[in-house]
Amino acid sequence: MALPLGIPIETWAIIAIAFLIFYGSIRVRKYLAYLKATGGQGFGGSLIVIGAVLFALVYFKLNDFISTDIELLTKISWWLVVVGVAAIILDWLYQLTAKRQATFLEEERREYITRVRKGIKLEEAEKIALKTLKRSTRKKNLQIVASEKEFKTWIIYAKDKFGAKYKVVLDIEGEVKNWEAVDELPSYMQGPF
């Protein structure tokens, strides 16, 4: 038997099946995208809907096309609903703990930025370095030659009128970690000092 355009019915059946498979694959991909976006809540909702539809089929005795036990179908529908509700609750709890974890990490990040950014400024670090050197070396004519800031420390270089050079290391709070006399400045600070 041939249908329109003289194409046999088997060919039309193959075309219809291919179309249904193609359409079904689009639906499956959309459903998977939905599950990816909604997570456990979407999965739980899907199970609840499937369980409710199955229960409605059993309750309204629309399961004549299925030759299985009504009691078994009822139990399956209830278990689908229960598992769906459990999936929604577990996903909600997971989202709650994930939100708490994200909030905790954000608080730690802000605290870290505050710790790194606070502290003394260059002028204060230089004053503390000069004061420390004057007290320790008993020399009055000291001047700052160079200053640099590393991650959490200030490094201040100074010299006296005789050319003796000193290095003072301070943390960001202004506490002197150590000081020492140095023979020369680092090569990148060499110049007309």
Protein described:
The chain has 193 residues and is of the alpha+beta class. Helix content is 59%, strand content 16%. The protein has 4 helices and 4 strands; from the N terminus they run ααααββββ. It has a 4-stranded antiparallel beta sheet, with helices on one face. α1 (9-38) crosses α2. The protein is elongated, with a radius of gyration of 39 Å. 9% of the residues are buried. The mean pLDDT is 80.
- Principal-axes geometry comes out as elongated
Structural class: alpha+beta
Order of helices and strands: HHHHEEEE
Helix content: 55-70%
Number of helices: 4
Kindly report the spatial arrangement of strands forming the biggest sheet. Answer: 1-2-3-4
What percentage of the residues does DSSP assign to strands (E)?
15-25%
- Distance from N terminus to C terminus (CA atoms, Å) equals 104 Å
Number of strands: 4
Low-confidence stretches: none
Largest sheet: 4 strands, antiparallel
Overall pLDDT confidence: 80
> Taking Cα atoms only, what radius of gyration do you get, to the nearest Å?
39 Å
Provide a compact summary of the structure.
The protein is α+β, with helices and mostly antiparallel strands and 193 residues long. It has helices at residues 9-38, 40-59, 70-117, 122-137; strands at 142-149, 153-160, 165-171, 176-182.
Question: How are the SSEs placed, and which strands pair?
Answer:
Elements: H1 9-38, H2 40-59, H3 70-117, H4 122-137, E1 142-149, E2 153-160, E3 165-171, E4 176-182
Antiparallel strand pairs: 1-2, 2-3, 3-4
Helix pairs in contact: 1-2, 2-3
